[in-house]
Automatic annotation (TrEMBL):
Protein name (database record): Sarcosine oxidase subunit beta
Annotated Gene Ontology cellular component terms: cytoplasm
Enzyme nomenclature, EC number: 1.5.3.24
Similarity comment text for this entry: Belongs to the SoxB family.
Pfam families found in the cross-reference section: DAO (PF01266)
Listed cofactors: FAD; FMN
SUPFAM superfamilies cross-referenced by the UniProt entry: FAD-linked reductases, C-terminal domain (SSF54373), FAD/NAD(P)-binding domain (SSF51905)
Ranges of residues in domain Rhodanese: 34-78
Length: 417
């Protein structure tokens, strides 16, 4: 279905009776060339790029619930490319370039808003670290501006600059960073993949992965067995559980990350603001709600809900940074299941099982990575070799210790990321 301003006006005047479903609801076939397990942003993007970039014509996405019902709809919608280490830097730079052309590519409004992102720093040491990060970003071809205290004040006059514990020294400004509408991203990729012949099979839970002679041959599902030449696992916080069906043990722990949204307010926050000392980040949605979050809950869980101590921590950080937020009413909160790797960086790689591929370990960075992840994972599945943007995201780095990408510098432990 094509979209246009005239079509919206026409439907508004005729009771919206002419809209049709934008993707099919097919029955699963008994066999496909490629099966993607997981109908979130990464899985849908992978299927789309398999069809678009590599001409794949026999692809199915299997989702145990409804499309976009997992982490792609449970996040704070931030899009950025302000990473420091080789391996992450070039990947997120590539992903941001895909974001910038995504709406034209999909012919779908994902509400990508490059409103800018400011990471605050609160000491001389942090200033030095962000200066290095900014230089790395510029060398990668991205944008970065180091702001002093007054430079931050011009952009964010409503912050508490005089707080005694974490005085604001300045910030690293990433003008091309911003936000996008998470649901629209999933819907746009789903629509585009369906139009290229991909079967999007909802309410189809994978219960087993068939392996014969060290090679994947298909999957078992709640809607019957499906044969496949290649299978991709891209299920975020459920990665360890699904990989275990093929006899694999992954270096991943699953943790809950909460997010919050307030009542709708008049425009007051133009950019995305990140407060590292409190691990707090906030932006304002197009509907006016303040969308914000903080740290992981720091205990392993598969529950898509959080606990009250973390709620208290996030609210404390919000009040420390911007006391004005105390007047806003929080409407709701939600939790996503984060697949945390020991070094805090993702995995896009083949597994020891021939024909079985893994896209996992996105930690906090899953949403901003959707286009880049789908593009690189599709390339890996189709070509059996990594895309250059994801060449360092190897699974074996955790076994060998070579090539670890500890972006936060907190040590190679799940519970430190």
């Amino acid at each position: 279905m094509a979209y246009s301003g005239w079509r919206i006006i026409r439907e508004a005047l005729t009771g919206n009776a002419g809209w049709r479903p934008v993707w099919r609801d097919p029955e699963p076939k008994s066999e496909y060339d490629i099966v993607i397990i997981g109908g979130g942003g990464h899985g849908l993007a992978t299927a789309y790029y398999l069809a678009k970039e590599h001409g794949a014509r026999s692809v199915a996405v299997l989702e145990k619930g409804y499309l976009g019902g997992g982490n792609v709809g449970r996040n704070t919608t931030i899009v950025r490319a302000n990473y420091f280490l080789p391996g992450n830097s070039e990947f997120y730079s590539h992903s941001l370039k895909l974001w910038e052309g995504l709406e034209q590519d999909l012919n779908y409004n994902v509400m990508h808003s490059q409103r800018g992102l400011i990471n605050l720093f609160h000491s001389d040491g942090q200033r030095d670290a962000f200066a290095r990060r900014g230089n790395a970003m510029i060398n990668q071809g991205d944008d970065a501006v180091l702001l002093d205290r007054e430079g931050v004040r011009k952009h964010l006059p409503y912050l508490d600059f005089e707080q005694g514990r974490f005085p604001i020294y300045g910030g690293l400004y990433h003008p091309r960073g911003g936000t996008a509408r998470h649901d629209a991203v999933a819907w746009g990729y789903a629509r585009a993949a369906d139009r290229r012949g991909v079967d999007l099979v909802q309410n189809c839970e994978v219960t087993g992965i068939d392996v014969e002679g060290g090679r994947v041959t298909g999957v078992q599902t709640t809607r019957g067995a499906i044969k496949a030449k290649k299978v991709g696992i891209v299920v975020a916080g459920r990665s360890s559980q699904v990989a275990e069906m093929a006899g694999l043990r992954l270096p991943i722990e699953s943790h809950v990350l909460q997010a919050f949204v307030t009542e709708g307010l008049k425009p007051c926050i133009d950019q995305v603001v990140s407060f590292g000392m409190g691990h707090f980040y906030i932006s304002q949605s197009d509907k006016g709600g303040l969308v914000f979050g903080g740290d992981l809950d720091f205990y392993a869980s598969y529950a898509a809900r959080g606990n009250l101590p973390r709620v208290e921590h996030v609210m404390e950080a919000a009040m420390t940074l911007m006391p004005m937020i105390g007047q806003a009413k929080v409407l709701r909160s939600w939790g996503g299941i984060m697949d945390m790797t020991p070094d805090g960086s993702p995995i896009i790689d083949r597994t020891p099982v021939e024909g079985l591929y893994l896209d996992a370990g996105w930690c906090y960075g899953g949403f901003k990575a959707v286009p880049g992840s789908g593009f690189a994972f599709a390339h890996l599945i189709a070509q059996d070799r990594p895309h250059e943007s994801a060449a360092r995201m190897r699974l074996d780095r955790f076994a060998t210790g070579r090539g670890l990408m500890d972006e936060e510098g907190t040590g190679a432990q799940h519970n430190l990321h």
